[in-house]
Specification:
72 residues
Length: 72
């Protein structure tokens, strides 16, 4: 059975929310002047990598499994 477009996908929605929060944390890490510049850049890269992972999970939840073994 196909999902209606207006139905909220709990897994995808939460993953997108977490990706957004990681992007916000990256923005905050850019201006965290209590860290040296190299550490700030490492923190920004970490948060952006986490956001990319959550986006990938949300994309997978949105598009579904390609081999789900018996679903429509």
């Amino acid at each position: 059975m196909r999902r209606k477009p207006e139905q909220l996908d709990a897994f995808g929605f939460k993953a997108r929310w977490l990706a957004d929060k990681n992007r916000e944390a990256a923005d905050a890490a850019r201006v965290a002047y209590n860290f040296p510049p190299s550490v700030r850049e490492d923190r920004v890269n970490y948060y952006l990598a986490e956001a990319a992972q959550w986006d990938a999970i949300a994309d997978q939840a949105q598009h579904g499994e390609t081999n789900c073994g018996g679903c429509d």
